[in-house]
């Protein structure tokens, strides 16, 4: 459906409180259309309605969208901003704004994020997520990141967490199961990766003794597996 020469497919965003925003971006005529749908709650007006409508209307003048045709600030769900053509912005899932720069920041801070209920996900505010018993993954996070738990390294400790929850806690998400030593800090000389420097590593060193450039056993990276590499193993023996 083409509305006033705007783009045929709208961007659909759930703003919370039962409000869904549909935005048909500017097309060849530099005109766009925005529609807000309230589901439930009667006809009372949400508190953010005035600012949301002004954000859209203020981007236009009598000739259409201000600055239409050139690169403009493109705002994304997480509050980030890039400068690109309106068509490219829309294709990337962003919303074009008036102006020609991301300074000062023209994009609103996100008020919702992905809330995980096991492997299921909903976009909620932190408060709504907590009161519903979910795990909030951070403002601006999206459900596309997934809620399927996987190995998350918090220092040397591994926990099964959703990707967003892992990141919000400062962890590193690797996915899969928490295998033995999956989050252990690498120990110099632990050639077989079992978390211990011992007999197996010594045998591995002796097995390739001599010139061996690029070999993992060349611990000091001098192109030779020899005494210096053996000393690394012995000094970290456990």
Topology:
Layout: E1 11-16, E2 19-24, E3 33-38, H1 49-57, E4 60-61, E5 64-65, E6 72-75, E7 81-84, H2 86-91, E8 95-96, E9 113-117, E10 120-124, H3 126-131, E11 135-139, E12 150-154, E13 157-161, H4 163-168, E14 172-173, H5 199-207, E15 210-211, E16 224-225, H6 227-235
Antiparallel strand pairs: 1-2, 2-3, 4-5, 6-7, 6-8, 9-10, 9-11, 12-13, 12-14, 15-16
Helix pairs in contact: 5-6
How would you describe the overall organization of this protein?
By secondary structure, the protein is an alpha+beta fold. The protein folds into 3 domains: 11-96, no CATH class; 113-173, no CATH class; 186-238, Type 1 dockerin domain (Orthogonal Bundle). The protein has 6 helices and 16 strands. It has helices at 49-57, 86-91, 126-131, 163-168, 199-207, 227-235; strands at 11-16, 19-24, 33-38, 60-61, 64-65, 72-75, 81-84, 95-96, 113-117, 120-124, 135-139, 150-154, 157-161, 172-173, 210-211, 224-225. Strands 1-2-3 form a 3-stranded antiparallel sheet, with no helix packed on it. A 3-stranded antiparallel sheet has the order 7-6-8. The protein starts with 10 loop residues before the first strand and ends with a helix.
């Amino acid at each position: 459906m083409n509305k006033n020469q705007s783009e045929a497919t709208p961007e659909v965003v759930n703003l919370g409180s039962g409000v869904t925003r549909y935005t048909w971006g500017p097309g060849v005529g530099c005109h766009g259309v925005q529609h807000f749908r309230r589901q439930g709650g009667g006809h009372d007006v949400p508190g953010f309605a005035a600012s949301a409508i002004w954000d859209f209307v203020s981007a236009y003048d009598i000739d259409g969208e201000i600055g239409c045709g050139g690169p403009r600030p493109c705002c994304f769900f997480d509050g980030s901003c890039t400068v690109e053509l309106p068509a490219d912005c829309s294709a990337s899932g962003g919303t074009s704004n008036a102006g020609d720069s991301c300074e000062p920041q023209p994009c609103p801070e996100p008020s919702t994020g992905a809330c995980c209920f096991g492997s299921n996900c909903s976009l909620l505010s932190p408060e709504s997520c907590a009161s519903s018993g979910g795990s909030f993954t951070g403002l601006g996070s999206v459900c596309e990141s997934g809620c399927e738990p996987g190995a998350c390294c918090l220092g040397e400790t591994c926990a099964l967490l959703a990707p967003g929850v892992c990141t919000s806690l400062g962890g590193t998400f690797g996915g899969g199961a928490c295998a033995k030593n999956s989050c252990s800090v690498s120990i110099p000389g632990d050639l077989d990766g079992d978390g211990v420097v011992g007999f197996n590593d010594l045998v591995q060193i002796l097995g390739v003794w001599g010139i061996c450039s690029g070999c993992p056993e060349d611990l000091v990276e001098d192109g030779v597996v020899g005494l210096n590499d053996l000393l690394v193993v012995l000094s970290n023996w456990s």
